[in-house]
From TrEMBL:
The protein, known as: Epoxyqueuosine reductase
Organism annotation: Psychroflexus salis
Pfam families from the UniProt entry: Fer4_16 (PF13484), QueG_DUF1730 (PF08331)
UniProt cofactor note: Binds 2 [4Fe-4S] clusters per monomer.
Family from the record: Belongs to the QueG family.
Protein's pathway: tRNA modification; tRNA-queuosine biosynthesis
Purpose: Catalyzes the conversion of epoxyqueuosine (oQ) to queuosine (Q), which is a hypermodified base found in the wobble positions of tRNA(Asp), tRNA(Asn), tRNA(His) and tRNA(Tyr).
Known EC number: 1.17.99.6
Amino acids binding [4Fe-4S] cluster 2: C196, C212, C239, C242
Positions of the catalytic residues: D132 (proton donor)
Lineage: Bacteria, Pseudomonadati, Bacteroidota, Flavobacteriia, Flavobacteriales
GO biological process: tRNA queuosine(34) biosynthetic process
Catalytic function, reaction form: epoxyqueuosine(34) in tRNA + AH2 = queuosine(34) in tRNA + A + H2O
Subunit structure: Monomer.
Length: 308
């Protein structure tokens, strides 16, 4: 056993906990052999829809050593976003991950802190931090790092906490002690598949991104397709259906991140208030939120489609 790698791993995990991460796991930076054919097939079948960026950097997506030169380890981290309070019933819904401040900024600051700590404690360590903003297969690395298994809805699942968390990484040129993957605990359950109103989960563990409500309400820039009318279950930004029905999410506990707390209007607005929202109020409620990705006009398009 490499005592230095063991020590480094221990202090990094301890610091991650101090920074508020749910968990932290390590895996060797190497080519993702199992994921390569799956990703290729998914792209060939057009399941990424108009998310053309998914076609870019195919090699880098599968091999972190091509993304970060000299990298030896992938440090995967989970950060809880499950809210204490949910939106009122019978309103247009916003995905829980977008309730508060945009997670990219909140988590990136914490990752930079962790990277700085590694350099201060261990010495000259090179690497990069990632939060859903580069060609990194987050879920595949988290699975390899023993942080959970990929559920039938294609999200990472963890026995103790479910799936309402963000996944982030540090890819570094440091040898660490690597974790082992956990086993799949979905069993014969098909709750997520049965609940999806657009049949986006085309088979267990395969999601057709181009059929997902999140894709329509966030990624798609064109008009929403008429054949989807009445199938969005009031989701105006993103969708949590497959996570909400998952039995493992019974174990979700509220996050302790003040920056993820929502504007009270988000929780309390009625359908009528969302329909009548002005650009000024939209910008105010979602000032530093991921919801701004749709811009005001995209959000209004979604609400109009739901209200039609």
């Amino acid at each position: 056993m490499n005592l230095k790698a063991e020590k480094h791993t221990r202090i990094i995990k301890q610091k991650a906990k101090e920074l508020g991460f749910l968990s932290c796991g390590m895996s060797k930076a190497e080519f993702l052999e199992d994921e390569a054919p799956r990703l290729e097939k998914w792209l060939q079948q057009g399941m990424h829809g108009e998310m053309k960026y998914m076609e870019n950097h195919f090699d880098k997506r599968l091999d972190p050593t091509k993304l970060v030169e000299g990298s030896k380890s992938v440090i995967s981290l989970l950060y809880n976003y499950y809210p204490e309070e949910l939106q009122q019933e019978n309103s247009f819904k916003i995905s829980k991950y977008a309730y508060g401040r945009d997670y990219h900024f909140v988590i990136k600051d914490k990752l930079k802190n962790l990277m700085q700590f590694i350099q201060d404690e261990i010495g000259e360590v090179g690497g990069r931090v990632f939060v859903d903003s580069a060609p990194v297969l987050d879920k595949a690395w988290a699975k390899r790092s023993g942080l959970g298994w990929i559920g039938k809805h294609s999200n990472l699942l963890t026995k103790q906490v479910g799936s309402f968390y963000f996944i982030a990484e540090l890819i570094v040129d440091l040898n660490l002690e690597y974790d082992t993957p956990v086993t799949d605990h979905c069993g014969s359950c098909t709750a997520c598949i049965d609940a999806c109103p657009t049949d986006a989960i085309v088979e267990p563990y395969v999601v057709d991104g181009s059929k997902c409500i999140s894709y329509f309400t966030i990624e798609l820039k064109d008009d929403l397709p008429n054949e989807m009318a009445g199938k969005f279950n009031d989701w105006a930004f993103g969708c949590d259906i497959c996570q909400d029905v998952c039995p493992w999410n019974k174990f979700s506990k509220a996050h302790k991140e003040p920056l993820f707390n929502p504007d009270q209007r988000l929780l309390n607005y009625s359908k009528k208030e969302w329909e009548e929202i002005t650009e000024e109020i939209f910008q105010d409620i979602f000032r530093k939120s991921a919801v701004k990705r749709t811009k005001y006009n995209g959000f209004k398009r979604n609400v109009k489609f739901l209200a039609y």
